[in-house]
Design a protein that fits this description.
The chain is α+β, with helices and mostly antiparallel strands and 283 residues long. It contains nine helices and six strands. The strands form two sheets. Strands 4-3-6-5 form a four-stranded antiparallel beta sheet. It has a two-stranded antiparallel sheet with strand order 1-2. Helix 4 packs across helix 9 (243-277).
Length: 283
């Protein structure tokens, strides 16, 4: 058994001595000992993944044993230097157990009784009633862009499609872009951060708000490419964030409010039932 070759110096240093209690014969062979505490070979089960080379197995096992010894030494040092009162964790353990117990019960109650279906109407109503709570912290845009080779014969075609004053014919643009464009993005119905667009397109601007207010369509020559960008819409930072962006956030807020109300009712009903049953007294 290769455990016999592990940590020879440490095993000698912590060998059986004095009047320490004897190891438990039912737990198998002893691997290490610190004062009256024993580490058994069975405790090492699972430390080394199956198929690990012997060299790595020895390293992992040695590391575990060394860590165990250091921890036991620290515990021993703490026991010797802390007063009995400082070592009494009865209250803390009870509080911790109670916290785990109530958390587990609340979680199970929520899993069983919480309604997590939130309608679009509920989301819209909440949004309209709390618009001041949804403020943008960055500029956002709805945009379509196409990147073409600078010598592409289709540039004029894309310019006509992207500069249509009435609408963006996204299906036609996408169909042509798949054939002729180096890359493209059809986001005329989706809000994105303007900063994210700047990371993709070489737009130079020192005032984002001014730029967005003054540009609906731009062309950028950046050899060997031609960039055609059409802004369908924009919203400036610190404005009210649009519903489309806040939908999932609002859904989570509503579900969390339901959760808190479910727990509040549970506590209140529990307390009222206890009063009726006369199960507690206040002195």
């Amino acid at each position: 058994m290769y455990f016999k070759r592990l940590l020879p110096v440490l095993l000698v240093a912590f060998a059986f001595s004095g009047c320490d209690p004897s190891p438990d014969p039912n737990r198998g062979e002893v691997v290490a000992k610190v004062y009256g505490n024993y580490l058994y070979e069975s405790d090492l089960t699972g430390i080394v993944p199956s198929g690990t080379p012997i060299k790595d197995s020895l390293f992992l096992t040695n590391s575990y044993i060394d860590s165990w010894i250091r921890k036991r030494l620290l515990i021993r040092q703490a026991e010797r230097n802390l007063t009995p009162r400082q070592q009494d964790f009865t209250r803390k353990l009870e509080d911790y157990r109670n916290s785990l117990l109530t958390y587990s019960y609340e979680t199970e109650l929520i899993n069983q009784k919480l309604d997590t279906i939130v309608s679009d109407r509920e989301i819209e109503v909440y949004y309209n009633q709390n618009k001041s709570s949804f403020q943008l912290r960055y500029n956002i845009v709805k945009v379509v862009y196409v990147v073409l080779p600078e010598n592409s014969k289709e540039i004029s075609t894309f310019i006509k499609l992207l500069t249509n004053p009435d609408t963006i014919i996204s299906q036609a643009i996408e169909s042509l872009a798949k054939r002729y464009a180096t890359s493209f993005y059809i986001g005329d119905e989706t809000w994105i951060r303007f900063d994210d667009l700047l990371a993709q397109i070489p737009i130079e601007t020192y005032n984002q708000e001014l730029f967005l207010r003054n540009n609906k369509f731009i062309e950028i020559d950046d050899a060997p490419f031609k960039y055609l960008i059409r802004f369908k819409d924009f919203i400036i930072s610190e404005s009210v964030s649009p519903l489309e962006i806040e939908t999932e956030n609002i859904r989570n807020i509503i579900i969390n409010k339901r959760k808190q109300e479910l727990l509040r009712k549970m506590y209140e009903e529990l307390y009222e039932q206890a009063i009726r049953d006369n199960v507690f007294e206040i002195y």
